[in-house]
Amino acid sequence: MVRRGYSMVELVVVVLILAVLTCLAVPRLRFDAIGRVNAEAVARRISTDLRLARSRAILQAVQSPAGCALTMTGSEPYRGYDIVNLGDSAVIASHDLPAAVRCTGGRRFEFSSLGELKEGSDTQLQVSSQGRTLTLTVLPATGTVKCL
């Protein structure tokens, strides 16, 4: 007699073994690592947008000599940010931050038509999630953005 398929008892035993292994493995997963990567991604995105605001201020110096700014929205911790043309107060781009990421520190980063930070602008911003904190620093004289 040729045997085809598995008995119900064999299938139940395999499912029970998989359930036990799952119960052992799931608590060991590192969900905090996902939060750390999320903080790094948001910090990179903000630093890229700071560079975008600076480059737009330089490129549009003739049409809008007032420059551009990146302004954080909401109260600390911020919930998002806007890139604004300072000449006509038009919002160029608007972004929301993920709920799991905390963003604190500087509120307004204004770039002149030469690319440097304007007097009175903030220079640092902290982005954190799941124990990982990154600091974005804008050098006032050059407008260069560093992420540490």
- Summarize the main sheet: 4 strands, antiparallel
Low-confidence spans: pLDDT under 50, at least 5 residues?
none
Averaging pLDDT over every residue, what do you get? 88
| Number of discrete helical segments | 2
β content, as a range? 25-35%
CATH architecture assignment? 3-Layer(bab) Sandwich
Counting copies of identical and different chains, the oligomeric state is: single chain
Q: Write down the overall geometry.
A: elongated
Strand arrangement across the biggest beta sheet: 3-2-1-5
CATH fourth-tier homologous superfamily: minor pseudopilin epsh domain
Report, as a whole number of angstroms, the end-to-end distance: 71 Å
CATH class: Alpha Beta
User: What's the number of structural domains?
Assistant: 1
| Structural class determined from secondary elements | alpha+beta
Helix amount: 25-40%
And the CATH topology? minor pseudopilin epsh fold
Number of strands: 8
